[in-house]
Amino acid sequence: MTKPVQRKILSESRDFKLFWQKQGPFRYALTSSEYPTVLLALDEWIFSDDLKSLLKALMEWDERKMKLVPAPFNPRKTNILKPPELTPWKILNFPKEWEMAVCSAFTPVGYLTEQVTGASRSNEAADIEEAFFDLLGGQINTIGYELLSPEPLLSPDVAYVDEYLKEWAADEE
Fold first, then answer.
1. Which is it for the CA torsion 104, 110, 115, 120, positive or negative?
2. How do the domains of the chain map onto residue ranges?
């Protein structure tokens, strides 16, 4: 049975290890790799067995009442430049905190890009949303986060945390 998404403040590596032993293991663990943190409290971690659920928790998808909606461009509005890589899909209530984030899946105001639609099985909202979260999961480390995930050869079913914990413990010394 899949465990629910959990958020936890873990300031030291020993706190992480203890939490991991008692509550884990999980397929995914995410924290901020930058300071100040964005969409996370200082030393906050999010844990989940499902990547999409983890990313939705990070974005506060339900709390912000976010949803994917069709957003077709009006061809008669010639005074607005539309970059060719944008698609007619947008995430409503997209996090303002990500306005400076550089990610090939979205623009700062939540329009999705052709990379998302190109990765989607169809042009249906559910498939577009799935493709968005798959693409975001692959790029989340480039926009200020550290995502620990399964390492196929070492730890295929749970997040591979060993190397990260070694570095963290060394930094604490």
1. positive
2. 6-172
